[in-house]
Structures are given as structure tokens and as C-alpha cells.
Amino acid sequence: MQWMKDSGQKPNYERKILPVVRLFSVFFLLCGIGSCIYDNTDDCPQGIHVRFYSKAPCSPDTLRPQPNGLELYVFDRSGTLVSYCKAGTTEIEQQHVKALSAENGLFTVVIWGGMDNTNISLETPVPYITTKGDLLFRLQQATQTTAILTGKRIYFGESPAVYLPDPSEYGSVFETAYVNLQEVTNRVKVEVEGLARQDDYEITIESANGAMNVGGFIGAGGETIYGSSPAFDDDGVLQAEFTILKLIPGYHTSLVIKDKQEGRELYRGDLLGTLLLKNPEINPECDHDYVIRFTLADQCKCGTYMIMKIWVNNWLVHSYSTDL
């Protein structure tokens, strides 16, 4: 793929063609794709050369994310969609060109990755109507009560603003937009030690994060229960695994462990505030894999369990001596 770079000459100048050596680039033509007529530059193509990467705020490394397909949005300065397209994984690797139309002005590029329709109800964007604040997707309920995202990795990123001048004055202009794709999914493994094997247990995560807007914010009406299929391992530890969406302070997300036979909750706590963030080494902007281990004891041998210890990523965050 090639991209155009200003050679420093006056309008109607000749532009040099330079090779793009990085594989993680996508190229958008933001005006017509016809040839440029040098005595009338109104119809000259405008372009944004988009490069995406992934760099967490607490990591020195720049990584190449590998989302399962991309959704690409171009917004004007008012936050209204002007262009949209999809790119599959094969297209990304081959650096295919996507044709999108827009007038000159100030633009930002938003990219979502991994947005297949499995367990997601995806809204269809409408150019010149959709805004960044509009709903992008809502989790579908895998059963009547629970949603499941197991194995899915979803990414979001937005570029700084880029400016495309009036082609009637400057001719063809191609600018580069850099998009830092950050994962918005998290994997949570829950381990519960000390429960009797014969009992029937349910482990869920209740959250308000089940819907997200195009601009990367949690959307309204996203109340969701993430389900799991808890099972005992060979050592008698009850285990359950989840994939959940973005964790943000101020939006409740509760971990619930329940004895289904008795309809009694053994534990309910704020996943972010009282569990994950009690480990000083965890940063939700950088970490996306968590292991929470509970140690329980049936001290009266009557099925009334007490939580003795809670570990988060091998860090002791709570130690109890009384019944919760």
C-alpha cells in the first residue's frame, strides 16, 4: 500500500509516493476516487491514512492487536458520523483500500474490533445521523437471565483530530490518524475453596455495563447478569469463568455466590471496589485477567459457611473472622 506525503511545493504540486512498511495500517479515501484534474482541484481525493496499535498506559511496549474484524467510523467535528465501513481480518492483513466519502474539515476516527454478532445485538450506523453518544451494541441474554461472552475480545480506540483542507485550494491532501486500540473486555476466574461437593451453587456477575455507545462509553439500560457454569475441579475447588465488559468506577458490578438449593447468598460484593482494587498492583486500564479465590469454612458443620480469606491475583485482599 502507498500513501501520499506533502513534498513542500505550491498547490497543484507533484506528490511523492512512499511505501508503507507496517502491516497494521488501513487506508481511507474520503472523497471521490476519480483522477485529479489539475486545472480544477475541487474533485481531488482527500484521504486519511489510519494506523492502529495497542499501548496500555502502564506498559512501555507497543503491541499489534489482532481483533476478529474491525468496524471503522469517521466523525466530523460535531461528533456526527460521516463515513463507516467494516474490514475483515484478511483484509486488514492485506491492507485493502476502503472507499468512504466526506467533505473537507476536522475529523476523528473511531475503531471497534472483535464486534461479531455472537451474543451481541449490534446497531446499524447511519451516516449524518449516528453520533458518538448513540448506542452501538447491547449484550444479548444467552438464557432468560444471563449473558455469556466467553472467549470474546473486544477493542476500542479513537484517534486525535485530523484536518483535511479545502481541495479546491490545496488539491489532494492525505493525513494520518493514529488509533490506540484498548481492550474493553475482561476475563474473571472465580475459585471457591471449602464448599461441600454435593451442594448446588450458582456464581454470577451483575453489572450495569451491558451496553456501550459508539464513543466507547457505557450506555444506558445496560443492566446485565453474566452467567457461568461452575464446576468442582479434582481438588474440590469450585470454579467459574467469565468474560465481562469494561469496568468503570461508579457503575455497579457485583460478584454473587449463591446456594441454589437454599436460595441463600454466600457472598455478594462489589467486584471492582471491594475486590479488584484492593490489590494495589491492579490497574483496570492495563489489566484484563483476574483470578479471585475464596477460602470458606463450615465451622459448625451445619452448612453455614464463613468466608475466611479472599485472594485477588495472589494478593490477600480480605481476611475475615466473622460471618458475612
Automatic annotation (TrEMBL):
InterPro entries xref list: FimB/Mfa2/Mfa3 (IPR014941)
UniProt-annotated location(s): Cell outer membrane
Keywords: Cell outer membrane, Lipoprotein, Membrane, Palmitate, Signal
Pfam entry (one): Mfa2
Broad class of where this protein is predominantly found: membrane
Lineage of source species: Bacteria, Pseudomonadati, Bacteroidota, Bacteroidia, Bacteroidales
Gene3D superfamilies referenced in this protein's UniProt entry, alphabetically: 2.60.40.2090, 2.60.40.2100
Protein name from the UniProt record: FimB/Mfa2 family fimbrial subunit
Similarity annotation: Belongs to the bacteroidetes fimbrillin superfamily. FimB/Mfa2 family.
GO cellular component: cell outer membrane
Entry superkingdom: Bacteria
